């Protein structure tokens, strides 16, 4: 089915690529895609195109990659050129998903039908950069997708629609991300069909109560502080898969912890003490309860299940992980 509503799309990671693919496959014309400049990645630190750019290029869609859209920022010439290109590209609406650049009011004012943002939380909870990670880390029972009309604030615009989904106690950021990406893709296509049919989308202002901010994840957050309750550490490990992982130091070696669950503490032991080692898991005493580690990784090695890890390492009850220094 083909549609007449023309959509400029702005986004960068896999989450956004899923939405772009759904919009394109639903038959909406996409005259231009904005995505972040290629970034160095991987061991060789070669420049890599974003998932959104790769999809757009495969489909023959025009791509622009300005480093900024703010005329008064560090890249005034590039921002001006990108704004000129937006003005010169006939379109009706702009859809933004995890783009990663600030859109000034001047840009928000260009599309006649405004800018719609696909945000991976139930707003106003978890505005900001890392809503999926923070929802798991905080132990939220559910999350979802909110579509909103963008304004100049950080995720403060009026809400168009939402889709809710449960957070399972086995969810990692990776698994929840994939379900949310699918949900966001469906929600935006439904909204664009309605916008084309009715010429407008109803929206309601976000409630003033319950706003929280999902700060960007920093590498330094990986360190597990064994003085905290095991249940919190287990959530941290799930929230930080695939990035930055949980990290714990044993005899000067930093091990990555990729899978763990909270268990009853078998006996009173100081936080950070290994109380049990078996092929089923390495049990470490915490401030409250204990953490059973099921998957870990040595520097330069692969993620290994405990059984395989123990084949190449000697770990024994009584050893101590370093207590993470609070930042």
From TrEMBL:
It catalyses: L-methionyl-tRNA(fMet) + (6R)-10-formyltetrahydrofolate = N-formyl-L-methionyl-tRNA(fMet) + (6S)-5,6,7,8-tetrahydrofolate + H(+). InterPro entries: Fmt, Formyl_trans_C, Formyl_trans_C_sf, Formyl_transf_N, Formyl_transf_N_sf, Formyl_transferase-like_C_sf, GART_AS, Met-tRNA-FMT_C. It comes from the Bacteria. SUPFAM superfamilies: FMT C-terminal domain-like, Formyltransferase. Residues 216-313 form the Formyl transferase C-terminal domain. (6S)-5,6,7,8-tetrahydrofolate binds at residues 121-124. Belongs to the Fmt family. This is Methionyl-tRNA formyltransferase. The gene is fmt.
